[in-house]
Amino acid sequence: MRRKSAVSLSSIILSMTLLFTGCSSANNDKAKEASSKPKEIVIGNIGAMTGSSAVLGRAQSQGVDLAVKEINENGGILGAKVKVVNRDDGADPTKSKTFMEELVDKEKVEYVVGPTNSTPAAASMAYLQQNKIISILPIATSTQLISPNNPYAFRLLPSNEIQAKAIVKIAVEEKFKRIALVADTSALGTDGMSVMEEAMKSHGVTPAAKVTYKADDSDMTPVAQKIKDAKADVALFWTLGADGAKIVRALERVDYIKDLEIIGYTGLNMPNFNELAGPGAEKVNTVTPGSWALDPGKTELTGKYWDMYQKVVSEYGEKAKRDTSASMIASGYDAVYLLKWAIEKAGTTDSDKVKAVLETDIKDFDSVYVKSYAFSKDSHEGFPVDELFKVKIGEMAYDEIYKKAD
Amino acid sequence: MQEIVTALANGSIYALMALAIGIIYSTTQIINFAHGSVIMIGAMSSYWLLSFAQMNFITAMLLAVLINIVLSIVIYKVSVEKLGDLTNNSRWIVTLFGAGIIIDNTARILFGTEPKAYPYLFDGKVIPIFGSKIMVHEIMMILVAVVIGIVYQIVIQKTNFGRAVRAVSFRPDTSRLMGIRSNHIVLICFAISGAVAAISGALIAPITFASYTMTYSIGIKAFAAALIGGLGNTKGAFIGGISLGLIEEIANMVVPGGLKDAISFLIMIIVIIVLPGGILSAKLFNKGELNAEKV
Amino acid sequence: MLQVENLTIGYGKTEVVHNISFHVQKGEIITILGANGAGKSTILNTIVGLHQAKDGSIRFQGKEISKARPDQLVKQGIRLVPEGRQIFPQHTVLENILLGAYIEKNANKIDSRLQSIFERFPRLEERKNQMGGTLSGGEQQMLAIARALMTDPTLLILDEPSLGLAPIIVGEVFDLLKQISSSGVTVLLVEQMANSALKISDRAYVLETGRIVLEGKGEEIRNNSDIAKAYLGSI
Question: Between the CA of residue B228 and those of A217, B219, C5, what are the distances in Å?
Fold first, then answer.
């Protein structure tokens, strides 16, 4: 018995030693490479290219491919060609983690774009941090992904936290008095409820009601009744589309929709929301990146965003054909250009130096997704709170671009 | 008032689902875990027939019923009949769960992931009763369920087929000695259950929206309703379904939304522990060896 | 009428009945005697199609029936009154009888047979709306037989009709079988109650652990107390 445990203990120590030496040698190699001029820069692109989240993974890939094509046609990064290694994790965290290890150990990627989904990202993040690999998250929105634990991760899309801050800010600025918070009891909803509450606190407002329900429940009348009982004038919806639509219908049943304005986070948005929610959809808004929303009365986006949109359409076709979101493609496209810009500005591929550039000089980067990313030493959340605009959920100008609310 | 109608309407759907589960249970002693998926196919197929083939409601419903009957027969042939004697094996748990998953995924591929707005009966007309807005659709949910329950009860009690169903559910081998082909009876029960599922689907889909996941949460509740009332028992299905509807509505008023199901299932567990044969076994049918009335 | 040849029956790997042969002629009453576990019920269940034989043949009116389903055999005129009566306790008496006529689609035939059943069993008519489960043992046995008669069988098979009944009732049951037999129905029964059964039997077979060890006229076997003691215990 004693002997056995001694043996196993020593074998653990041995394997740990191997692990650490393995790591450190990898870092040494990298440091050596970084100092000289790179011959090739390898970027891993990972996300759900198949399965129910495929539209996200494909949008990211389309953006990445488009950017890499342009960059290589124009001399690469620091004179080196960019090579992309694609992996499809099917939104499965276990697969994602395995692929990430393979990308780092075998494919020797130096930067990663993705994963697209939050759970795979959470599962594979640690390995990237251990290996000091900068990862740009163009799609995943779960709040926890960006934290001091993941110093090499940067996010482009508005995270749940940013969205919560934005919808609360809009409600407060529009002088609503009685704010009801609505969320389901899933992990997503609970996270949403707590970020909305925090945002409320920072504005010094208390919610008129906090209403929770079980996701996918068939009867939403109690939710509507609680909003009505609280005499809310605005309800902030942290709900998924179908549930949100059911609540809107229930609000109509209890005769309260006319007295209420609804602002939901982006998860509320779905293509046939109006049809599902019925006439009450009139009163429902969501938020969207301002640069990718049409100003009232306009038919085109402004300047470089419109150019990017045209580029997406000419490369991948209209929305009906490509199925992916143009603004998400822009985010994926930005991810690669951010790396190019930061590497060239740092003059090296060394991840700490590139990271420092992203944290300090981000104002100089010219984005096609937002006006300006908000990275700093303290926060790797790229999306600025005040670039989220309220839009009517039914007001799509093109298949995918909203009109800003008046 | 509105709460009561909602409770009764939801309860009626649970009852219809419990009834359909009971129809199969009574002759086979198995629980059709694929039932939720069959309901979903009923709703999805009638939705597509209504909106794309532009059929009128009755034709679409009849076709959906037919599709569901065929689907149920296939489920029986593939994942039940092949297993042989069901008394000594529980492989049906896996095959029926598996069938459900296969149906759900096929529906996802065929119909997409996006929920669809399924039309209410009578265009969602609302009538005011005692100052509350009551939907005609909800009243129809209750009526249709009650009518199906009564018709089924009459068939089971008064017809040759009904006698045979009860016989097979009690003594399958002896029934065969009467010249009853037990496996035909079981097959017909699967078909009836499929037809009832199509109707349940059309009644519930306007509320849950039509999607491949539409019965994920109510499906479990149907099993709960069936168990609360007593499995394989028409009256029990209705008592179980309606009580579950009422319990939920009361729970809704007292506890925060997310806890409602926990309360309902807590009550279900208590009922099952105290009255293993369901509420109906409490006083009426516990003479001697005959624990619960079959069918 | 019924010809059983070299019949071997088993459950899984265990053989219960080994290579037996016997026959029943039209109009006869035949008894198969044997102790518990001798394989009597297995043989009957195999004849009526509830169980499949491993080997051997069963012919009924010249046709091979060893692969037939129970419902096909009911149509051909073979009915089994199972051991323990197996009436449907939660069907009414009338429903039990009607279930017996399940394969008969002609309503007139059902009506007239029902009439003659009620003439023969007035007690069942009195209780026709009672649940089957509320009848006494003897009445249940009558019901089980009545149920089998609803298709006018040519061969009536009974599995231990005397089981669990009071002696006086047993007498009634066997009188009834005698009556049924004289109305032209061939009867095959298995019994442990050898004495009463042999009294009405034309011929009898003695079965021991799956083998037929003796065959003879009913009276002969009844009178041969040595044989009876050896194979059947007390009579």
Answer: 20, 14, 53
